[in-house]
Amino acid sequence: MLAKSSxxxxxxxxxxxxxxxxxxxxxxxxxxxxxxxxxxxxxEFLAKTAAASLGLSTAAAALAACAGESRxxxxxxxxxxDSPVTLPIYDDNPPIADGLEPERDATLRIxxxxxxxxxxxxxxxxxxxxxxxxxxxxxxxxxxLPRLRSxxxxxxxxxxxxxxxxxxxxxxxxxxxxxxxxxxxxNVWPVYxxxxxxxxxxxxxxxxxxxxxxxxxxxxVKDDIAAxxxxxxxxxxxxxxxxVHLLDDYREVISMALLKQGIxxxxxxxxxxxxxxxxxxxxLAGNVGALDIDAYSDLPQGESWIHQAYSGDVxxxxxxxxxxxxxxxxxxxxxxxxxxxxxxxxxxxxxxxRHPVLAHLFINxxxxxxxxxxxxxxxxxxxxxxxxxxxxLVAEGYVPPLIKNTITRRQAFNSGFMPMELxxxxxxxxxxxxxxxxxxxxxx
Length: 444
Prior knowledge:
It contains 16 helices and 10 strands. By secondary structure, the chain is α/β, with parallel strands linked by helices.
C-alpha cells in the first residue's frame, strides 16, 4: 500500500522484464522492513500486464470496475449456508440516492489490512476523479472495529464476512446502492450476488477469496510437512522453536487448533471444546516466535521458517526474497481434500463516509476485470472474477507451479470450513481463549 515497499527483485526477473520491452521504469517507493529500493520487477510487471496476459481485451475492460463483545443483530439469526440472512435496511440509514455526482476535491479515505491493495490502483482511480486517496491500515478486525465505532470517518472499509451482521445491526455500514456498482453482477462469481451472510449483497461486495494453511521454506525445514499424518502438528515441533509464526487473528489460530484435533466446527460454541483447545494452545505458546500477518515478508527474510498463512500471502512472498535468493523454496499446504479454512473478504461503505458516491464508484472500479487482474498481480490475493480462470493463473506466471494449491476454486467453499458470525456469548469464549494464548506467547 502507500506505507510499504518490497525488496529488490531478482536479476533474472529484471532481465525478463527488459526482454519484454517494458523496461526498467521506476515505481513509487514503498517502505519495507529492509531499507531497499528497487526498479520495476515481476510483481509490478504482472500487475501492469494482467489484463493482456489473462486475455482481457480492451473492449472487455471498457465494459467494466469490535471486539468480541459486539452485539449480534437482533431480530434475525446468525447467517449460515443453510440459514441465509437478509440484513435489514433501516429508515435512518438508507442507501444513497440514484444518479448523484461524485464528490469534488475529495480525499477518499480507505480503511484496510496492510499490503492488501496496490496503491497505484487507488491512485489511478483518484486521478480519474480529480481526488486524493489516503490508505489507513489495521492488522485485524479486533483493531479495526473499535476505530470504526469511534466515529473516525472512512469512505471505504474492507471487512470479513463474519462481522457483516454486526456492522449492519450497529449501523456502522450503509447499505449499498447497486446502481453505482454494475460490475458486481457483470463480473463476479454469481454466488456473491446473493451470499448467505448478506442476501442481496446489501452491505458489501466480495474483494478476494483465499484459504488458510501452512507455508514453509524447504531449505530451512527438514520435514515434508505435506506428507505428515497431521500437518498442523508441525507448529508444536520444538525443532522449530522461535521460527514458527501464527496469524494474529483469533478466529484463524483457534480454528487451526480445532482442525488439528479433528474438530471441523470452526464456529463451535461448546465451552468444553474451547477449554480443550486452550490447553493445547498453551503447549504451543513457547514455540511461537511471533503473531503477525506478515507471512509474505517473514518467510523470504528468514524471520519465520514455518508460518500459518493465507494463500494470497504465499503467492505474494515470491516478490519479497532478497536479491539472489531463490523463491522456489516456498511451499504451501492446504488439505488436498479441501477440508480446511476457506473465506472471502468484502468491501463496504461506512455510514459516516464523507464521500459515499466516490466510495461506490471505487468499489465498482475494483470489480472491473482489468483492475482486479492488475491488483491481483500485485497483492497475490485472488479476486472472484469470472474471467480470472484458475487454469490460467499458473500458465500465465501469476502462481508458481510449486504452490499452485494456493489457487482458490469455487468448489472449495463446498468442502471447506468457513468462519461465520458468532453469538455474543460464543464470541466472548473465543476471545477469552485467544487472550490467554496471547498472554502465554508474550511471556514464553
